[in-house]
Automatic annotation (TrEMBL), chains A, B:
This is Maleylacetoacetate isomerase. Belongs to the GST superfamily. Zeta family. Keywords: Isomerase. One of its GO terms (biological process) is glutathione metabolic process. The gene is maiA. It comes from the Bacteria. The keyword Transmembrane helix does not apply. Signal peptide: none annotated. Its EC number is 5.2.1.2.
Amino acid sequence: MVLHGYWRSGTSYRTRIALNIKGLAYRQEPVDLREGEQKSASYLALNPQGLVPALECDDGILTQSSAIIEWLDERYPEPALFPTGGAERAKVRAMAMTVACDIHPLNNLRILKYLRRELEVDQQGVDAWAGTWIAAGFDALEATIGQHGGRFAYGDTLTAVDCHLVPQVYSAERFNVDCTRWPRLMQAVENARGEPPVAAAHPDNQPDAD
Amino acid sequence: MVLHGYWRSGTSYRTRIALNIKGLAYRQEPVDLREGEQKSASYLALNPQGLVPALECDDGILTQSSAIIEWLDERYPEPALFPTGGAERAKVRAMAMTVACDIHPLNNLRILKYLRRELEVDQQGVDAWAGTWIAAGFDALEATIGQHGGRFAYGDTLTAVDCHLVPQVYSAERFNVDCTRWPRLMQAVENARGEPPVAAAHPDNQPDAD
């Protein structure tokens, strides 16, 4: 498999965590977002949406990291990234979607560029913007993790929630958000970060890192 | 089942379409977003995130519309909202996620309020903001629907893509986006809108509509 992504992209980071948990081998093909390589003809031929990541596999070219994680779990069931019971699956998906829909899309590179260039928002304003949506989502997740968390964000095994949450905390820290306000969430993230498949997925450990 | 939602909310609309396609009976409990009812103590007790929808069912209280749609499809398999093959499932999920992650979250009520109040963006600026992300997502979907669409957005049966796409077009029309730029997408949406389960889910047909 070939993962087209970018070391610092949260959605690429998510996908690397899931691939690593499944113990799958993959080659990384860097797409430098700072250089606009996601809009190059060669990348658009892979993913017309011009967003990372894209995963080349025997089922074709897969896009949208949350959809890729679902595919990985169906194709390579062990170790499972989702519980088996209906209520539990729904909860894990809802927690992952809180990051995937309600936090991450508001703070990614294209949005920050628009805020800066089109709306002339300064750095303090950008940090306030990002911090607002991160706090709203993390407040909700702190409560849910308090209810359903164990060693990790949902129970005692790594799930799709951890795949989404660990990169979101990495992003929050880059926006200088004080994450000590969410102690339960941070404990789960610390525990997840200590697991080798998660640690190996960290941006600093990628071939295209600065 | 009880669906807590709001007639004009795109995520409530999505969930109604899915429930209707499955032929399930449900009662609607309105949460008036204009009145801030999503932040009331009684609603926060149901969904601490303070976002609609929330579905009360025998598996508890489910949140996040895209996660609810997955739950519905697992719990009530017929008619299926996702194809059975791995590559096809991944594609349907990726198309749905393009709406759920890359378009809708950027244009919902809390974001528009922030743009107006905190960043002092005027109505023209708000329309330009919304139009930018709708166009980026619809450009990508127009290409994908050209490849995979049939009578509907993916093939010839209603799928999770239609559940997500029909409400997004409703929203685009409210932002005065000229949707004739995406003819293949609009044809699929027109066909879906003509189906009774989809038509019944339209905001104007809900008990709490203006």
